[in-house]
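Researcher: Here's a chain I'd like modeled. Treat it as a single chain, no partners, no ligands.
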Amino acid sequence: MERKELGREIHNISNSMKRKIDAKVAEYGLTSVQSRVLHFIMIKTQIEKVPAYQKDIEEVFSIRRSSVTSVLQLLEKNGYIKRESPSSDARLKQLTLTKKGDEITEVVHQIIMKEEENLMKSVTEEEKELLFSVLEKLSKAISES
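Model: Modeled as a single isolated chain. Structure tokens:
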């Protein structure tokens, strides 16, 4: 019997899903990172109803400040976002979606949701609950080690 490796399985699933989403968002002229950043800003500002900052993206995606700055500059240049310093702290860059950003982010959100739905079609509700429970435990174990 073949020995299964957790890391390899997670990596393969993640890469396969990323490739599918990347191909679809590329049709709209976005890169993978751009689409994920736009989706993150939408989740923070419209669903969680909290401000999104450049430092959040650096932390959540584990991306260097210079790389995040480049992505955000391009998104701003293309009219998807606005970067503003809040009056409370000029060092922070608060991110908001423009109307154009809202429109493309809705497309990106639908692409992501459809791919997740397709991925989870073959899994029962009980299996989903168990899967997410195990993933949460693994995530916690990684962060504590």
